[in-house]
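ok new one. same drill as before - structure tokens go in, u give me an amino acid for every spot. 316 of them this time. try not to just spam alanines like last time pls lmao
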């Protein structure tokens, strides 16, 4: 099937820019068959000084940590990857995101590859214009607030199989299945639970609530993905004088919250209107969610000098 998406986009692939349609891998490749692809995903934002990648160094550090957790023998270091991400954005004007991949492209039989070359691909593009616009049917709408389905089965996400901190393709199979079921039930998103039954995270987002005392609460980092946006929101909350704690969150705490929201590269701060058709709080978005969302948008747009170090300008 021909690639209809992004005909004018180019992808950085092992040190050279190639047309979007030529950035392919064999169906029998190790990463395709074994789920060993490691990735990261970051936003590109327009600022008064031109396009800037949000927390580029932090995303690259997490990418390298994921490769280490998976055991991929990645030879490229942080500085080279940072330069390559900027090059990819410069080569693709109007890009809104950068997706960074490390994978084993060789055709393999054994679970341990005979050819351990790790390819690196960096795609800078606009999700709606370059991908979703080429899919059948109308463009999907992202609601202002989100309707959640709470996962009913505890996840068997054991760290002795693959650590939850690793952004590796295999770790997303269970969340994909859960979100698919939520969509079939008419919800926007699924909220996953951990093996102990505590509220954990979304498939690609972190979870926060605001209790009735005004304290921001989020699950501890050892059991969830180390979201860069999550870390940013905690720093912004501290700057704004909002108290916060990291602790296990029960279902009762979720339904008794004054506010709740998800965070992520694509989501930003995404207020939760309801869970299992039960309204969260008395108003959505609530004042804390609105304030954090407003401040976060200012930060990524380069309008808050206190967080200027989080932006990597691609033309400087």
């Amino acid at each position: 099937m021909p690639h209809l998406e992004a005909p004018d986009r180019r992808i950085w692939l092992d040190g050279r820019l190639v047309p979007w349609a030529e950035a392919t891998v064999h169906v029998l490749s190790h990463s395709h068959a074994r789920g060993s692809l490691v990735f990261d995903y970051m936003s590109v934002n327009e600022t008064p000084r031109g396009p800037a990648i949000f927390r580029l160094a932090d995303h690259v550090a997490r990418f390298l940590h994921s490769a280490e957790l998976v055991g991929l023998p990645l030879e490229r270091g942080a500085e080279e990857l940072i330069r390559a991400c900027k090059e990819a954005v410069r080569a693709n004007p109007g890009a809104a995101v950068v997706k960074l991949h490390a994978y084993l492209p060789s055709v393999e039989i054994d679970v341990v590859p005979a050819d351990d070359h790790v390819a690196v691909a960096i795609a800078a593009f606009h999700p709606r214009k370059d991908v979703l616009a080429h899919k059948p049917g109308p463009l999907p709408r992202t609601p202002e607030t989100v309707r959640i389905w709470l996962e009913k089965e505890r996840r068997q996400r054991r760290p002795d199989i693959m650590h939850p901190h690793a952004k590796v393709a295999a770790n997303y199979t269970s969340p994909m299945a859960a979100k698919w079921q939520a969509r079939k039930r008419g919800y926007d998103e699924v909220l996953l639970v951990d093996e102990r039954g505590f509220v954990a995270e979304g498939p690609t987002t972190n979870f926060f609530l605001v209790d009735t005392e005004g304290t921001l609460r989020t699950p501890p980092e050892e059991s969830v993905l180390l979201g860069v946006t999550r870390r940013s929101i905690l720093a912004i909350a501290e700057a704004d004088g909002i108290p916060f704690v990291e602790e296990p969150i029960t279902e009762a705490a979720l339904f008794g919250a004054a506010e709740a929201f998800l965070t992520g590269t694509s989501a930003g701060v995404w207020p939760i209107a309801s869970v299992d058709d039960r309204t969260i709080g008395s108003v959505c978005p609530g004042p804390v969610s609105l304030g954090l969302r407003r401040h976060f948008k200012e930060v990524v747009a380069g309008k808050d000098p206190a967080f200027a170090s989080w932006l990597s300008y691609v033309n400087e």
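The domain at 10-134 is CATH 3.30.470.10 (D-amino Acid Aminotransferase; Chain A, domain 1). and btw Helices lie at 30-34, 56-70, 78-90, 127-131, 173-184, 228-239, 251-255, 287-300.
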